[in-house]
Specification:
This protein has helices at residues 3-17, 33-37, 82-90, 92-98, and strands spanning 68-72, 75-79. Strands 1-2 form a two-stranded antiparallel ribbon. It has a domain at 47-98. By secondary structure, it is α+β, with helices and mostly antiparallel strands. The chain is built from four helices and two strands. The N and C termini lie far apart (98 Å). The structure holds zinc ion.
Length: 103
């Protein structure tokens, strides 16, 4: 007959036992200035920084994005990727001929 009461007691005990611990004293929110100050470490090349309009290796217009640059004979050549830069460096003279320079 007392099963229900017993169950209620157990439930009560469990409820109290399971009472979630209060969160520890929370520290004040960390200063967000540090996060804001962290600059984007990825270098972004701009078409204005290079002397060519097209990737000498693959012919892609550099307006689509510059992945890397190379300096050669006082000119800055932009490439869509490091692979294209490596291709250029294998034979810079051919690359220079292939590169479409900005006027
Ligand atoms: Zn390319």
């Amino acid at each position: 007959m007392n099963k229900l009461l017993l169950a209620a007691c157990i439930a009560m005990v469990l409820f109290i036992a399971c009472d979630p611990a209060k969160p520890k004293d929370e520290k004040p929110a960390p200063d967000t200035t540090a996060a804001v100050m962290k600059m984007d470490s990825v270098m972004h090349y701009d078409i204005a920084m290079v002397d060519n309009k097209k990737d000498p290796s693959c012919g892609m217009p550099l307006t689509a994005g510059i992945g890397d640059t190379a300096h050669y004979k006082n000119k800055v050549y932009g490439f869509c990727s490091k692979e294209c830069k490596a291709e250029f460096e294998k034979n810079p003279e051919a690359g220079v001929l292939a590169a479409e320079l900005k006027k």
